Amino acid sequence: DFVYPTGSGKLYGLGQTGAGLTKILQKAIAESGLWTTPASSEGNGAVQNGCLVEYKDYLWGFQGTTQVFKWGLLSGTPSITNSAGTVGTITSVAQGVIAKDDNLYLPYNNKIARVTSGGTVTDAVLTLPTNFKITSICNFGNYLAIGCAPISTFNGNSKTFLWNLTSPDVTESIDWGEGEIRILETVEGLLVGITDRYLNNSVGAGRGSMIIQAYSGGSPQVIKEVFTQALVGKTMPTAKATKNNRLFFAAKIMTNTAGT
Questions:
Q1: Cα end-to-end span (Å), the chain
Q2: Are 118 and 125 spatial neighbours (Cβ–Cβ below 8 Å)?
Q3: What is the 3-state secondary structure (H, E, C) of 1-22?
Q4: Better-scored residue on pLDDT, 149 or 255
């Protein structure tokens, strides 16, 4: 959970106190130096890793069981607002996105909360089926694309929903196949999704995989599938970054039982 605001020269990270509460850290120079703790950077709720996003001169995220926090002004002397808004009971979160309407959308559980330019937080502007959790969202043309994984491994395929930002329901539901979609992003007009297909589950029958798919209409097409024969110790965080029409993400997988 890192943010590098344009023009600031500083790198911000979402950490935690010794008691597990939200704590904002910073580097004065992003590429060197040590992390420091700014004044008024500690929250009063348990840290919720997975969401830290810059919007209107503030950093936004979730903490505790129901809080949306903000920290800023980044251009002035920042301080934390522990409860800039409240949402339902949080069980999972995903990275927020600024959509084409210039509002910030913060996903948690199976819901999307909206933050307007004035800082007003509205909970559950969109609610998806309860058997899904949101893992990644991105802009896709005029829509917000919402990647969702089944809460239970044995409870169906992952889905990607397209939403027009105003309707009470989604515009389109795209079947993304077996496994848990972890990353969703638009690259050169294509909607690209990265799926963890039983990398850490015996259901993989000795052969889990990481699947890269692309969508431009119809059904998602598999670009690459990387198999692994060792089904423990794999990780695929939901963190992502795009630069020069390229998508960057992290994954720890093994392609044979020797661990190479």
A1: 28
A2: no
A3: CEECCCCCCCEEEEEECCCCEE
A4: 149
